[in-house]
Every structure is written in C-alpha cells, then in structure tokens.
Amino acid sequence: MANKQSAVIIGAGIGGITTAIYLAKNGYDVTVYEKNSSPGGRCGQMIRDGHRFDLGATMLLMPDIYRKIFNSIGVPLFENNSIKPLKDLYKIYFDNNEVITFSTDENKMKEQLEKIEPGSFKKSQKYVSAGYEIFQTGINKLIGRNFDNIFQFANFKNVGMLIKLKTYISNYRYVKKFFRNTHLRMAYTFQNIYVGQSPFDSPALFSMVPAAELTEGSFFPTGGMFSIVEKLLSAAHSAGVKFYYNMPVKEIRVKNKKAESVIFEDLSESKADIIVANADLPYVYRKLLPDRRKSRGLDRMKYSCSAICYHWGLDKVYPQLGHHSVFLSDGFRDGLDCIFKDKSVSDFPSFYVHAPTRTDSSAAPKNQDTLSFVVGAGHVDKMKKQDWDNLAKKTRNAVIQRIKQLGLEDIEDHIKFEICITPENWESTCNISKGSVFGSLAHNLLQMGYFRPHNQHSRYKNLYFVGGSTHPGNGIPNVLLSAKLTSERILNKQLN
Ligand SMILES: Cc1cc2nc3c(=O)[nH]c(=O)nc-3n(C[C@H](O)[C@H](O)[C@H](O)COP(=O)(O)OP(=O)(O)OC[C@H]3O[C@@H](n4cnc5c(N)ncnc54)[C@H](O)[C@@H]3O)c2cc1C
Asked: Which residues line ligand 1 at a C-beta cut-off of 6 Å?
C-alpha cells in the first residue's frame, strides 16, 4: 500500500479539529499541534469549583449548517435530545425598563411588538423573511462555496446577487425602513456585534443574523458549547487524528514553493505533505511565515472589535436573569463609536449575559450560579493604547450598576470568584491579531468572498488556512463551513 499523505494542523479550534476529521476520513495521517493545554480556542471551556464556563461561543445558531457539516463527517449531533431548542432566544433590556423577549413564538412577538409600535409585527415579519432569504442566498452563493478567481465573485451575474444580498446599504439604514421606534431598530441590528461589526457601518446583508435566529431558533447543548468541541474531538480520535497540546508552533519552514514543516519552541520539527493553519491568519503571516510584505498588507485591513469578558462563580442564584440577556444602552450609537472609533469601551456599555444553568443545571453547584458577561470593546491598537486593566474595572462597575436595576442589589456580595479576559488576554491566549475575537478580520464587503484572505497560500500551494479569519468568516457555523471548504480544496473534491 502506498504511504499515507501526512497533514499537520496548527491549532485545535473548531476549524482545526473539523478539518482534521475530514482529512483523516479521506486517508490522511493527521497531527494537530495546539499551543494551549486544552482544545477549543474561542469555543474553549473552564471549570472552577463546580462552575462551568463557556469562554467564547454560547449560542448554537443556524442549526442546519451544524447538521449538514456533522452529517458529512458522520457525527450525529442532535441525537439523544442533548441539544435543546430555547423557547426564548434572549431578553433585551432597555434603559427605560422596556423589555422585549425575542422568541420564535410569533404570538409572543406580536403582543410585545404591537405595544411598542403599532403595525411593527407585520414589519418584523417582512424584515425576517427578507433576511432569511438573504441568508439562504448568501449560503449558496457567497458563504458556502470556494472562489477560485475574481471573475467567479465579481461578474455581471453576481452584481444582481450582491444587490439582493443588500450589500449596498448599511444595516442600520436598512432597518429604519421597517421600524420608527429606536428600541426596535436597536433590537434588530445589535446582532451585528456577533461578527464584530457596527450596524452603522456594516452591510444589511447581516440582517440575516436575527432572521436566522428567529426562523431556525437558538439551541444550547447539555454540557455547554464546549460539548461540540468534545464531540468533534471524539470523532477525530476515532478517525486516528493525533493531538499534542502545549505545543506552540514557532515557524512554518518553507523552501522554494513549498511549506515543508512546522518548527516548535525547542527547535524540533514536524514535517508534513500539507500544513493547515487554524491559528489566526494575519498572525500566521506575521509571526510564522517569512512573507513580510503580505503581512503588512494584512495589517492595513479592517479588524473586528474585541470584548471584555467577566466570568463569575456565585453562591446565590439570580432567577431574574434568563439564559441569554442583552442590555442595550440608550447610548447605543455612542457606545459603538467608542468601540470602533476610539478602540475603547463606553461608560454606559451595552452588554450580554450568559446564565447557562437556566437550561443545564450542571453548569453550577446546586443553589449556586454561573454567569458570564461579554462587553464589546475596541481591539488592541498601537495608535490608541488603552489601559485595559483599568478599563475592565470601570466597565465591571458600569455592568454591576446596570444589572442592580433588575433587583440584583446584593450581587457583588455573592461573587465567589471572577475571571476577567481583556482584549490583550484574547490576543495572547489564542494568538488573535489585535485581540479581534470576532474575526479577526472584519466582515465588510471588501473583506468577504473572494476578497477575504484565501484558504490556500498563493505561493506555498500545500499551505492552507481554516477558521474565522479566512473564507467565509467568523462564528461557528462559518468556521464549520470553512473547514469543509478548505478540506474540499485540499482533497480536490466536493464533500457532501
Ligand atoms: C466572546 C465570544 C462569544 C462568541 N459567541 C459565539 C456564539 O454565541 N456563537 C457562535 O457561533 N460563535 C461565537 N463566537 C465565535 C466563535 O467562538 C469562533 O468563531 C470560533 O470558535 C473560532 O474558531 P476557529 O477554529 O476559527 O479559531 P480558534 O478558536 O481561535 O482556534 C484557533 C486555535 O489555534 C491555536 N493556536 C494559535 N496559535 C497557535 C500556534 N502558534 N501554535 C499552535 N496553536 C496555535 C489557538 O490556541 C486556538 O486553539 C464567539 C466568540 C467570542 C470570543
């Protein structure tokens, strides 16, 4: 029998592990090297004193993409009722005590929306069905396919497609055509932050996010989002993939037009026929490859925002908070400007709270609570240096003052421990350029599709990329698609 082709994958994030499975199932001898002591990257987990935290992703959205990819690697995902649909997606709290519960229950939506703005329910249905159509067209024509040359992307036929995908108008301008009420406009656009963008600057293409949520629902796996990583890991082990942790790759050694091996801190080397970088693409060009010119070009591109995250283990349960809560400040626009222009955090930030025990009691000891807070923040910028530790303290205080208004007056007395992750921490723990955790590269039109850095190196043809910073983009559904598309390129065949 001919020797197996070998593949080395740099990074055990969702993108790296899924690609490893595709390749191993197609005859490759695959080895994954991960810098950290555990897998998952931005879908990682931490357990402390019986409190379980998802460190990054907390919402399983666009379940059809998960189904499709998991089916194609032969892993049943939605078996045994282990992934539950949430009745309500999230509660949105506004400064004037107005609350909207986003739900797939249309009657519930109608009752709430009509109270805020008569006639708005019909408008929301239009917004959602148009957004869902954008989502489906986007999957078929933009997100779910590889582009081999610019003409496949920028051609006469696609001009119509780009118009259909609402790439010519900002998301916030678009939503104004549907709702007069400012809170409704905020409620249907804040989801832009999931891909690290401001709805004032990103295309209305992203109206597909709330549309997909409200159409397909939001899910949560027993064991938290990390259980997705565990399922992938188990499939990878069964397919013969080898994993090595605490093994940061220091260099990708190249010769002529080939990537030959990866080099580690102790200068040991691992050779392979192909190399796949799941680590952040701009970081790989900057730190692991000799190509300085390309790296400088990547530095000039736009980057997504970052986040300050607080994870608390509490000795008391706060039932006022549902599984997912979103607090939108009246200073919505100023807050976004503060993030995207000043690369900082607003004094009155909008933020998100995750309370996983509402769906899965195993996330905290009995009668205790596990809460995570995510506050959008500017990315690390050399020209706009921030004292992130101080900003994190100030922001924590603002968050506490806001949630106290829900009747959680004594919450500070019940925090047993806290883990805080700043943009600088994201940069160092996962090697994400500028700590831009929702990208890293932004998702503006000129950085999407063919224009997003490609999943194959243009010179070293056996070097590939997978994950949020290459095509199609960030967020687990995109990263799963990225793994499929990169694997298709490597294997030179369509994977179903
Ligand atoms: C706060 C937050 C909330 C989010 N919420 C959601 C959500 O609700 N739903 C959703 O779908 N998505 C969400 N996301 C996005 C989602 O988590 C990411 O899109 C996804 O996990 C990225 O996977 P990846 O494989 O591209 O990269 P990563 O997870 O970053 O994996 C890359 C891996 O490479 C490793 N690595 C880096 N450099 C090296 C090196 N030199 N040598 C070896 N290994 C290296 C890293 O340690 C890491 O493990 C969220 C992200 C964040 C940060």
From this structure: 10-16, 33-36, 41-43, 56-59, 61, 248-249, 278-279, 307, 309, 374, 430-431, 437, 467-468, 474-477, 479
